[in-house]
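Notes to self after the Tuesday call (sharing in case useful).
The group wants a holo model before anyone commits to mutagenesis around the pocket. I volunteered. Ligand is histidyl-adenosine monophosphate. Logging inputs and output together so the record is complete.
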Amino acid sequence: MTASTSLFILHPRLNLYYKPCTTILFPSRLNIYLRHFSQAPTVPLFSSISFALRRNRRLGIPGNFISQNLRTHSFSPCSAIPAQSVSLNSSDNDGGGGRSGALSSPPVMEVLEKIDVNPPKGTRDFPPEEMRLRNWLFHNFREVSRLFGFEEVDYPVLESEALFIRKAGEEIRDQLYSFEDRGNRRVALRPELTPSLARLVIQKGKSVSLPLKWFAIGQCWRYERMTRGRRREHYQWNMDIIGVPEVTAEAELISSIVTFLKRLGITASDVGFKVSSRKVLQEVLRRYSIPDNLFGQVCIIIDKIEKIPQDEIKRELNSAGIAEDAVFDLLQILSVKSLDKLEEVLGSAGDAVADLKQLFSLAEKFGYSEWIQFDASIVRGLAYYTGIVFEGFDREGKLRAICGGGRYDRLLSTFGGNDIPACGFGFGDAVIVELLKEKGLLPDLSLQVQNIVCPLDQELQGAAATVATILRQKGQSVDLVLQNKPLKWVFKRAARINAGRLILVGNSEWQRGMVGVKILSTGEQYEIKLNDLD
Ligand code: HAM
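Result:
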């Protein structure tokens, strides 16, 4: 950090300019710099430093922190006036300021300077244009949830860390933003919403009537390796159905995602859903009498199949206690891409085939068959899924998963609750925006204000405020010109905010209870009585 020496400050009493000559870094997140000057003034100028001292006391930083730091800096003379030695101990200040003794406190200014203006890596700001896009996306999430009769919920972003710690060795566990709070509790920023949902369902107990159809849009945090559409913070739209054991629930959920994608202009040739069931793997494990408690772990290992070499997968499965022949069968079955073939391998007796057949038959009735395909390699990376699992993917294969979900009938009991059948999905806000960009489907979301109201001279500012208020009461959006600006400026601004009408408040019209109107798209101009303006 370098000290800026270019700024001269006018001494309030002596009419002398002072030049800052040293910089002190305070241990605050904003990297606040204290700037102090080489000449002590005769007026009490300690407000900033005493503020800093008070703040540091609050933060538990020793009172002499500032003075020690000041002393360790070289107070190089940087103005015509020689530098003095200073003490900024709070006790020195408490004496009421002034020049008592050899040591006197220098004037101090607190300025914000040279912070990194980028948000932390992997996180985003939402300036207005980004915010408009986000609002538009969330509006569509909400609209589709409403169409399907879901109620909105939310949970805290900060949760107990234990909620996200599962034993199966999931990647998500290593990506946790977790820490100990001031009360020595282990907490974490939520990496997903499902555990919070489960917690709330347990908490509500019998007070809620099933089935629950809940949706949420919430920010999630994962310390991920960043790729296109994958960030360290993202928003997820979740829809979950609690209390329905039938596959009708999964079919309804996929239907809601398809409805959403269609609203955005995305078709079945852009996006597809790979569907499978974890019961496929379960049936293989049961053939080899592998205990159920290994199931989650096996799924997590198998989910890595596209990321690490198959030999490594085999080794991991072996060390989890899965015998060679079972590993062979598991890996074989993952390559199955049709339901008929699956039925050949597993037989038709088990739940896996029956569930999947029912889902594909329902998809026909819902009208989204062309969007879905069976793919046994879809397992998903979260330990809690128990049945149907699905993932949305872009058919060009350029992006990571668009969304994903499945059935998790046994999650609640892992938190000490009674199990209730449940399924749902998470749909991120980042990949879909990348896809919309790819397809040229991003909407034009420029700012639009219906009216711009401008007084023609400064005395009419109040009259213009009255006009703006009347229009706003009628539900019209108004940009009121708040400063005395030339008309050229007003027209420029009107164009920038896409205003529909310019309303001019001029003296002679105002005397007659009228205002001037210009329709900006056509150029049409007229006068209108204030009362008739709507
Ligand atoms: P997930 O597959 O981990 O599932 O995440 C769901 C979706 O969230 C992903 O498909 C992707 O769109 C988005 N997503 C995840 N991580 C990131 C990231 N780092 N950056 C950007 N987007 C991301 C779950 O989270 C489950 N809890 C979903 C669920 C709800 N299952 C049942 N109910």
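Two things stood out.
The first helix runs from residue 47 to 58.
Residues 1-102 have pLDDT under 50 and may be disordered.
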